[in-house]
């Protein structure tokens, strides 16, 4: 296995494009090295992107933040600006693994691993985050909800690399929240995850909301009907219940050792309503 | 494929080694450099027995490639004591009998040192959450948590 650590994205793309065998991108390594060890992947080339300028940087951009693809969970959790603007994204990323994993695991990696149960992804989808992808034909942008196409599958073409993720600016009165259910208090894979981002207008009515679910389908889902059920309301019990109904209707989970279809669907409804209440409370302070 | 030459800093000393592209930092430390304090447990980043500090952050060295360490700063359990003088965490682990078989102990000490550097007065809950990535199958954790909290007291008093 050849290891390369280029210092710019163009070289990284060229290395990937020039490899005739199996090539993999390395950011934090908390998924890739496990797959290597278990023999699930046998790459001929690994391209470490952490020495590329900007890929481990968080930069303010147009009122939002651009997060380099290799930024670690710990790094994001220590960034006061992102914590204030997108607390739901920060809490979702912070749920991934142990302190040791947080020190390495990256935002871009969580996206590219394309697990339906990824914790960061529902929060990023709710946030309306956009991934910038670099490849042989230049750069392109993909909304995070359109990035994964199935378990472990993404829209990335050969030799393409996720370079950064943009968390957009927010109107006043906006906030977000993420909740997941696991049967223990720490270090587990989501049975269900729910991310919500919303904006409360000066009138006290919700002027827009995005609801995203993890671990209830083959990929993370954006449930537009759930967001619409909150828009124009003051998030009273009736609106929250209608939102929960839309969430439950969108769930198409599998039965597995973590939970049944019925349980996951019920929990998704409960978590989405709770997350909406947290986001509402935070929006009152934003 | 020719081995990769890596120059890095381990416990404050400049170190150079050769490694293969797919060789983990844990294997480099143990098999090439004779630093056998970090232990191999699960090899999948779940148990924390291989914990080391990389550029100020505690990481599982089984999930780091040896080649990635070039130009970085690594601290291992071997650098914790000052010669014959044990670190307060090490003293307190002995005093509280916070170990039995000892396989998890180097990783827990390294993780606890970083925890206390970031939070000198942790609550019991913060210690338990902070060390959730370090598994111990002997002690039931209680003595470990007590030892870390006691070491935190001692270290604050010493300042």
Q: Gist?
A:
The complex is a heterodimer of chains A (286) and B (159). Chain A has 286 residues and is α+β, with helices and mostly antiparallel strands.
Describe the structure.
The complex is a heterodimer of chains A (286) and B (159). Chain A is α+β, with helices and mostly antiparallel strands and 286 residues long. Among the domains of chain A are: 1-48, Uridine Diphospho-n-acetylenolpyruvylglucosamine Reductase, domain 2 (2-Layer Sandwich); 174-283, 2-Layer Sandwich (Enolase-like, domain 1). Chain A has eleven helices and 14 strands. In chain A, strand 6 and strand 7 form a beta hairpin. Chain A starts with a strand and ends with a helix. Chain B is of the alpha+beta class and 159 residues long. Chain B folds into two domains: 4-79, Roll (Ubiquitin-like (UB roll)); 88-157, [2Fe-2S]-binding domain (DNA polymerase, domain 1, Orthogonal Bundle). In chain B, strands 2-1-5-3-4 form a five-stranded mixed sheet, sandwiched between helices. The mean pLDDT of chain B is 97. The A-B interface holds A 1-3, 5, 26, 29-30, 33-34, 36-38, 46, 48, 50, 72, 74, 97-101, 103-104, 186-187 and B 1, 4, 20-22, 24, 43-46, 48, 51, 54, 57-60, 62-65, 67-68, 70, 111, 114-115, 129-134.
């Amino acid at each position: 296995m050849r290891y390369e650590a280029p210092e710019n994205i163009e070289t990284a793309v060229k290395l990937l494009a020039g490899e005739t065998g199996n090539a993999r991108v390395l950011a934090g390594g908390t998924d890739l090295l496990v797959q290597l060890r278990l023999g699930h992947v046998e790459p001929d080339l690994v391209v470490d992107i952490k020495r590329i300028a900007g890929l481990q940087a968080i930069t303010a951009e147009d009122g939002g933040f651009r997060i380099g693809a290799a930024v670690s969970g710990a790094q994001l959790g220590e960034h006061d600006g992102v914590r204030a603007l997108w607390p739901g994204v920060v809490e979702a990323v912070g749920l991934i693994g142990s302190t040791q994993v947080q020190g390495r695991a990256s935002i871009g990696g969580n996206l590219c691993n394309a697990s339906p149960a990824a914790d960061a992804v529902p929060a990023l989808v709710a946030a309306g985050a956009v991934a910038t992808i670099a490849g042989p034909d230049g750069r392109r942008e993909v909304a995070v909800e359109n990035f994964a196409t199935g378990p472990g599958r993404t829209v990335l073409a050969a030799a393409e690399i996720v370079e950064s993720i943009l968390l957009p600016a927010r109107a006043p009165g906006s906030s977000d929240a993420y909740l997941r259910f696991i049967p223990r208090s720490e270090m587990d894979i989501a049975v269900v995850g729910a991310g919500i981002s919303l904006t409360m207008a000066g009138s006290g009515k919700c002027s827009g909301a995005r609801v995203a679910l993890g671990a209830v389908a083959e990929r993370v889902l954006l449930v537009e009907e759930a967001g619409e059920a909150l828009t124009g309301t003051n998030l009273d019990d009736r609106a929250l219940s209608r939102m929960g109904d839309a969430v439950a209707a969108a769930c198409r989970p599998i039965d597995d050792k973590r939970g049944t279809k019925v349980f996951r669907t019920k929990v998704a409804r409960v978590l989405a309503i709770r997350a909406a209440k947290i986001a509402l409370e935070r929006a009152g302070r934003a | 494929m020719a081995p990769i030459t890596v120059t890095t800093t381990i416990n404050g000393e400049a170190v150079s080694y050769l490694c293969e592209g797919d060789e983990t930092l844990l294997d480099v430390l143990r098999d090439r450099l004779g630093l056998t304090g970090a232990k191999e447990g699960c090899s999948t980043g779940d148990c924390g027995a291989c914990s080391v500090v990389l550029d100020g952050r505690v990481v599982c060295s089984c999930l780091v490639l040896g080649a990635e360490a070039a130009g970085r700063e690594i601290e291992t359990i071997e650098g914790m004591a000052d010669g014959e003088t044990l670190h307060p965490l090490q003293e307190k682990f002995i005093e509280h009998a916070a170990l039995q078989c000892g396989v998890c102990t180097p990783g827990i000490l390294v993780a606890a040192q970083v925890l206390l550097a970031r939070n000198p007065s942790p609550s019991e809950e913060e210690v338990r959450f902070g060390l959730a990535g370090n598994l111990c199958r002997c002690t039931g954790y209680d003595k470990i948590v007590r030892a870390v909290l006691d070491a935190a007291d001692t270290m604050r008093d010493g300042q």
